[in-house]
Design goal:
The protein has one domain: Hydantoin permease, CATH 1.10.4160. The longest helix has about 35 residues. The protein is mainly α and about 425 residues long. A two-stranded antiparallel sheet has the order 1-2. About 80% of the residues lie in helices and about 0% in strands. Bound molecules: tryptophan (TRP). The site of tryptophan has 16 residues, from helix 1, helix 9 and helix 13.
């Protein structure tokens, strides 16, 4: 849950839903969770627990030639992590600004170098956590703080429901404009958001599964993680969109959406400063627990290959991580760094968070559902009779339906990119 719930739910989901047809985006997102995401989640845990190895080691154990694929996945996680930490840094910046009563508008914030400084601090903290090996501490922290985050978001959604714009927000979110579904990019983004939000397709859950106790029920845990994750995302939508429609501002504002609207909640809501400070603190912790899970994958891969300790591997990652992340950080700072006319962070999120993640999910499907020992996997997922049913149906989904849908959505994505000749909009 610590890895799954994070900025993907509160920052990425509303921004993608807002710029991809609102309610229409929910359909590919939920289909993606049910048809590909949940089976992947269950069987990533299964593969981790069966092989007791990280992504690269597990892939190698499935097929020698697949080791390099595991390596490529670890590299992709590193790219996602680099800009994820930038957004986590924004949360930190808002966390500092809110209690001192500084009006934290997004454009005012990015007109300073604060975003860059906050990114550096966040990245160093993340590396520090992995280096000190306090992942147990992270587990305890997220167990205590994630439920609190859920409570605060319920409060915020409740406040949203008292606003004038709630009707418009509800119909934006739940009355899908089906014509948006004709756009293949909406499907590709909905699917990749399902994976991003669950944290599958990048070997994270394989790594976590390798630490899982024999007696944990994988199917049950996966269903709990997935439903918790979807609920938090929907609640975030219910908190953010009423504001968008009450105080104006386009729902398709892009990555800054949550960071433009949330300060407005707190400046209007009774007790807003207190609720706001709590919210940013909890969101920062949620983001950190997800970032740590990603860094853990990269560090474990390096340590598997070199025999170094995780801590030493992480030490070597600090500078590359800062260097790479700085490109994204500078794109929302006075430097306004852009490639191809787009802020680097947007480009990173499209390339790695959307396209890369679809590729990652596809190769993970092939590894887990075709190359791995299928019987052993199914045994991991289901012991009891109903769970055996879950294991079989999940396996069949993962073996056929998921790869075919993933291939189709990658193909349409590639085709539309070629036809359009550019990354159209967001
Ligand atoms: N799921 C996390 C979130 O919603 C982010 C995350 C964790 C992730 N592990 C991942 C994203 C692996 C992509 C791949 O914020």
């Amino acid at each position: 849950m610590g890895s799954a719930v994070g900025l993907g739910n509160i920052w990425r989901f509303p921004y993608l839903a807002g710029s991809n047809g609102g309610g229409a985006f929910l359909i590919p997102y939920l289909v993606g969770i049910a048809v590909c995401g949940l089976p992947l989640l269950m069987f990533e845990y299964a593969a981790g627990r069966h092989y007791r190895l990280g992504v690269m080691g597990a892939f190698k154990a499935m097929s020698r030639r697949y080791e390099v694929v595991g390596l490529a996945i670890a590299a992709m996680v590193f790219f996602i992590l680099s800009y994820y930490l930038v957004v986590a840094g924004w949360t930190l910046g808002y966390l500092i600004a809110t209690p001192i009563g500084k009006e934290a508008g997004f454009s005012a914030f990015t007109a300073t170098w604060w975003p860059v400084a906050c990114f550096v601090v966040t990245a160093v903290v993340c590396c520090g956590v992995v280096m000190l090996g306090v992942t147990k501490g992270i587990e305890r922290t997220s167990r205590a703080l994630l439920p609190l985050l859920a409570v605060v978001i319920v409060l915020m959604a409740g406040y949203g429901m008292t606003l004038e714009g709630r009707g418009e927000a509800l119909s934006f979110l739940f009355k899908p404009d089906l014509s948006a579904l004709g756009d293949p990019l909406v499907w590709a983004r909905g699917f990749s958001q399902a994976f991003f939000s669950l944290g599958v397709g990048m070997g994270v859950m394989i790594t976590y599964g390798s630490y899982m106790a024999r007696e944990s029920a994988i199917a049950r845990s996966s269903v709990i993680v997935a439903s918790g994750d979807v609920s938090v995302a929907l609640l975030a939508g219910l908190a953010i969109f009423p504001l968008v429609f009450t105080f104006g501002g386009p729902p398709g504002a892009g990555p800054q959406l949550a960071f433009e609207t949330l300060p407005q909640v707190f400046s209007h809501m009774p007790g807003g400063m207190l609720v706001g400070s709590a919210f940013y603190l909890l969101l920062f912790v949620a983001a950190l627990t997800s970032a740590v899970s990603m860094l853990q994958v990269v560090a474990a891969t390096i340590s598997d290959r070199t025999g170094w300790s995780t801590s030493r591997a992480t030490r070597w990652l600090v500078l590359p991580l800062l260097g790479l992340g700085l490109l994204s950080a500078l794109s929302y700072a006075p430097a306004d760094l852009r490639f191809f006319g787009q802020p680097v962070l947007d480009l990173m999120d499209t390339t790695f968070g959307t396209f890369g993640l679809l590729v990652g999910a596809l190769v993970t499907c092939i590894a887990i559902f075709w190359l791995a020992d299928g019987l052993a996997m199914k045994e991991q997922v289901g012991h009891g009779a109903p769970r055996r049913f879950v294991a079989w149906s999940g396996f069949l989904l993962g073996r056929y339906v998921a790869p075919i849908t993933l291939l189709a959505s990658l193909a349409t994505l590639a085709a539309s990119l070629i036809v359009l000749g550019e990354l159209r909009g967001r």
